[in-house]
Amino acid sequence: MSSDLPQIATVAGAVGLSLGTAWWLRRRAARHGAPINVAGLMAGSGFVIFTKDECPACLATLERLTLFGLPIRQVREEDEAHELRNRGVTGVPITVVLDGNGRPCGQFAGLPKPRALRRAVRRAGRSSHMAGEIPGRDPREL
Q1: How confident is the model at residue 59 (pLDDT cuts 50, 70, 90)?
Q2: 31, 37, 48, 69: which has the highest count of C-beta atoms within 10 A?
């Protein structure tokens, strides 16, 4: 019986680690949502944001994005509901950060935190050599 204890502890540890990893991945997916396909919506660097009218978080997110001085492609539910349905968007706002080649470098559901948004923009800049300074280095600016 005592010789089985290390094996039981190893199995319990592996199961615990697996459950913890699954929980973390599910939590992360819920926070940022499943990856949205934005192919064909915008060429080059900038932001694609899925919104709808009278959404306070959508307006706040748009204001935050304009501080970066990068192009913004807004996909409004009222004008392009088919785009939201076809791309699997179930809630708004959803923001996707694109690098200079139009590849996603970050995705956010809801109002993105300034620090996380700046990191995604920097990542996009490093992967595509976006020109210019990235505003918002001081968290109080956003």
Answers
A1: very high
A2: 48
Look-up: residue for tokens 């990235």?
134
* Cβ contact 124:63 at 8 Å: no
pTM for this entry: 0.70
Locate 8 and state its tokens: 């039981």
50 forms bridges with which residues in the sheet?
Answer: 75, 94
What is the CATH number assigned to the segment(s) 46-141? 3.40.30.10
What letter does residue 110 receive in the DSSP assignment?
S
Please provide residue 32's backbone torsions phi and psi, each rounded to the nearest 5 degrees.
Answer: -105, -10
Which contacts of 60-66 are long-range, i.e. CB under 8 A and separated by 24 or more positions?
60/111, 61/93, 61/95, 61/108, 61/110, 61/111, 61/112, 64/111, 64/112, 64/114, 64/117, 64/142, 65/95, 65/117
pLDDT in tens, 80-116: 999 999 998 989 999 999 998 889 989 999 999 999 9
Measure the CA–CA gap between 142 and 138, rounded to whole angstroms.
8
